[in-house]
Amino acid sequence: xxxxxxxxxxxxxxxxxxxxxxxxxxxxxxxxxxxxxxxxxxxxxxxxxxxxxxxxxxxxxxxxxxxxxxxxxxxxxxxxxxxxxxxxxxxxxxxxxxxxxxxxxxxxxxxxxxxxxxxxxxxxxxxxxxxxxxxxxxxxxxxxxxxxxxxxxxxxxxxxxxxxxxxxxxxxxxxxxxxxxxxxxxxxxxxxxxxxxxxxxxxxxxxxxxxxxxxxxxxxxxxxxxxxxxxxxxxxxxxxxxxxxxxxxxxxxxxxxxxxxxxxxxxxxxxxxxxxxxxxxxxxxxxxxxxxxxxxxxxxxxxxxxxxxxxxxxxxxxxxxxxxxxxxxxxxxxxxxxxxxxxxxxxxxxxxxxxxxxxxxxxxxxxxxxxxxxxxxxxxxxxxxxxxxxxxxxxxxxxxxxxxxxxxxxxxxxxxxxxxxxxxxxxxxxxxxxxxxxxxxxxxxxxxxxxxxxxxxxxxxxxxxxxxxxxxxxxxxxxxxxxxxxxxxxxxxxxxxxxxxxxxxxxxxxxxxxxxxxxxxxxxxxxxxxxxxxxxxxxxxx
Length: 542
Prior knowledge:
Blueprint: H1 23-32, E1 37-41, E2 44-47, H2 48-64, E3 72-76, H3 81-92, E4 96-99, H4 106-116, E5 120-124, H5 128-137, E6 144-148, H6 164-169, E7 186-194, E8 197-205, H7 206-219, E9 227-229, H8 237-240, H9 242-245, E10 252-254, H10 261-270, E11 275-278, H11 280-287, E12 301-305, H12 312-319, E13 323-331, E14 336-340, H13 352-359, E15 364-365, E16 369-375, E17 391-397, E18 403-404, H14 408-414, E19 420-428, E20 434-439, E21 443-446, E22 449-452, H15 453-460, E23 466-476, E24 480-489, H16 497-505, E25 516-519, H17 532-541
Helix pairs in contact: 1-2, 2-3, 4-5, 11-12, 12-13
């Protein structure tokens, strides 16, 4: 028995144990940095004192509306100040934040409203038609809408709903925040593109979000007062938790509604943006920007890129423009990025193309994660770290989801063996760095958005001339990948490419619609399974 065997009187108490939550960051920032700029967007300029007060009024107004702890509040918002405020105000009343992808079609939005049992939804004026169409599709009441107008961007209030600023006025500055009693309480609910049609609801906890904010600061080598440009949509894994992180380092959130090269260059030059995250398509836009869209700046901009491996050529080109890019990797199920391609100074001596090839790897675990590696999906044994043996990326750590809402079977399956099964096929190099080889789930990643091939195939199968179809990723210079459909027509039937694309567009969000359609007999196995790997080869050469 050691001398610490008797721990009488050493129990947890309020003085020495506080449930971890990113809400604490904003409470501290309001006290320590009250006059620092917190959120900017055109003429909207708020200090930390003002930001905290607005989030407090939001929480109070929600509670006054009858929103109870554990209930879901949805949003359909671009990267505007209200999107940042809901990240604190919604959990500060005890509710769970459900940020909905603004690019989804009404059918999926309606499904999410219903599955999440959302009580209230903050909807940007531009997305009211989608939200209204979604509500028309669901049984029962659905969430009450609060309209978030954006007159600066040409979206004045319609007058049909209570507007966000009026809603805030009804809140109380003195409202006491509902802090979690248990850090395992849910903070957010994010729907991930389902591989079998319907998306799954990923439930995240306060502890994981808090630790994600802590780990990211270390990995991004952040010091106080970064100026963070919101390129990653705040509906993607809560903007990779970066908005929850900013008060920790007294940073400024620079809102960017429309993601264009011109707006990015302007934010760097005019707002002194120092950091942003984005998919490789964003890097391509910066590299390929027209001369008149570019602005001069004299600081290095730190960039995290994820969603699909960026082309080595893109990485080489953007480095010369004043951007330092780090490849990261993660999933909705891990709150965003959980691996990083940590740079070794010894690699600086390598030829440029070899450096770019290393930068395209997904890398090693972030500091807040416990263990991320590549295992054999059948045996759950570590694969040889030889750079050629394939396995599945497996993840263990506090920034892994609680599980899928109302889907214990899928949760148990993805957590088998004590690791989260990513579904991503990768190799591991001798230094432990992971590199994705393929997508196990046939997910197409287009401009950072996940596209389920199964969902697209389901839409195309409704076409009267289609007998069989298969959708695969076709490499694309702009989007990284785009959906490409291979169609076997019914005997005697005919169809045109443009007509099939229009048919799909009427049923799917734009980014899910096939950009090419090829009519041919589909290659099949002896049991009739379509051989997608053969179609990928054809698509790559189109």
